[in-house]
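ok trying this again, last paste got cut off
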Amino acid sequence: MKTFTFLCLSIGFFWAQTTRLQAQTFSLESVKSYPFPTELTSSAKGSRIAWAFAEQGKRNVYVAEGPDFTPRKLTNYTDDDGQEITSLSISDDGKWVVYVRGGDHGSNWDDELPVNTMSSSISPKVQIWSVPFTGGEPKAIAEGDAPVISPKSDRIAFIKSGQVWISPTDGSSAAKALFSARGTNSSIEWSPDGSKLAFVCDRRDHALIGVFADEKTPISWIAPSFSKDDSPHWSPDGKRLVFVRTPGTGGAPDSILVRRHRPWSIWTADVASGTASQRWQAPKTLAGSVPTTHGGFNLHWAANDRIVYLSYEDGWPHLYSMPSSGGAPLLLTTAPFMAEHITLSHDRKWLLFSGNVGMDNALDIDRRHVVRVPVDKAAMEVLTPGAGLEWMPVVTGDGATIAMISATAQRPPLPAVRPFTTGAIKVLAQNLIPASFPQNQLVTPKQITFRSPDGMTVHGQLFEQAGGPAKKPAIIYVHGGPPRQMLLGWNYSDYYANSYALNQYLASLGFVVVSVNYRLGIGYGFKFHQPDNGGALGASEYQDVRAAGVWLSEQPQVDASRIGIYGGSYGGYLTALALARDSKLFAAGVDIHGVHDWSQQRGGGGEASTGRFEKIPDLEIANKLVYQSSPISSVSSWTSPVLIIHGDDDRNVRFNQSTDLVRRLEKQGVPMETLVIVDDTHHWMKHTNALKMGNATGDYFKRKLMKPRQ
């Protein structure tokens, strides 16, 4: 009787604690109901801006105009159909809004192919559309991608099947091929007067800069070489071009395991003669290699006849400026922080960007704020300091206003404006946040730091609701990328905004959640972003993930026997690696479209089968290391239960990565559940599919971790 009474009291106490804890919960549907803005842009004249909004999967274009900047819905797509909006732009005269609808432009391959999340018998198209800024019915211009409106606002050049096409902006006549150039053409750039078009023609082992004038004039090739030329930009007078040159493909097979400098240089060319001269060469160091953060080179021809660009050479992705004739570059951004989402003002006098810098540097390294700097002087200003987050700034054509995306730890991202000179931020479209959104119930994540076994300092964010039992279950979240950074608030990527919402939801259920920013990620300098022995050549970043799990296990409020782990993409890879190597530390996991065999994802071994007499000197050693860095190499020690989720139109991580792992885990006898989401991609283009994934993750962890282990 005493035993029965004690058991009843224990069960009653557990359910009382669980009920009291879950009284603070909200549904994933409610926390995922926020509108998410992307594609913010401005016209070259006046004060007109436009952006795209995803409202529970229904994606539309919105516009606003100064001085009031009252948002106005310009399109009326009413279905959660997975059709994204990209390449949003406003014509220079402000009269037209142009965009692409369809495709998956965050993918690694086939981004220009249609996405059919509805499994419709008639596949959607990837199309270019135009609509008057003042309102009207959008008009389909043509199937194609990457549209660029002429400075005269009358024509749109775009890419279709690797060739350049042209159409009237108003769609008054059918689009047609502008010219034919052998190879795959991209990076269209109109001359300032709209009379010429510069472009990149990729011919596989080399790439050329071409200039098209008219149908009667042959294409002019700018200083053709055995190199790969990229990123052409016109001088303000339209007589010259600046571009980047990198080595062409070829040379004797070299070591895979030895890290080496990836050279690049900046050239300017006289368009009339086609001759070019090198103006700057990157330092021959690892940090001086081709930059790998947002926007790459971020090359522009600015005012005062200056060239601006981004380089990682001093250990941080910083902005530089130099005379177009060459000479010593001027470092424009000097603090230890990164610059991304970089734009040049329409008058070419200012660079605006988002940076992890502000008044409180200890915390701002895990935030984003809007920063500006003149193109010819190291006089940087942080325009939006504080506890919020701001990114993707653009200047209106009249130079009076800066538009941006703004968020906090609780309020989801929304477009915002502030005067260019000085003044407060005005947040737009707050009325579009649904009444059901649990803004006041979201926690403010806390910054944490810890050290990995090799001494690397690692940042993370801790999500935890107050109260609850003395010992709580916990979860490690591992972002994908890997060149990403989770922040102390909503993320600027829709994919990682999903993750932020899911982490808030898991915290509301009573889990202690840690989001870990492991090495290979951005925001903490070159040595962190490009570490030794990372990825498929050693997985050194896994020790950061494991260290996060150990840190959690040592917290007094955490039950060390109930720590789970989840992540998507590269985060799925590290989740699988954690479960395979450390099932004693991680009690359960959710592996979302992760990589499990690097040799299959990368097509490894191809060099060995080319039939060349010359061989890669360390290929055998590298292949072994690739295998050892893959979760499949440690399946024999995998015992923790796992949920595996994958969309079968994934264009970033091949679906067979999960098919293969499922077969291996079945043979191993590992407790496993699976969820296949048919006809969606890596990015959960359909809102209801993102909910399906998130609810499956939350439900799995509730079943596996919420109840104390016996």
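PB: full thing came through this time. The two ends are 21 Å apart (CA to CA).
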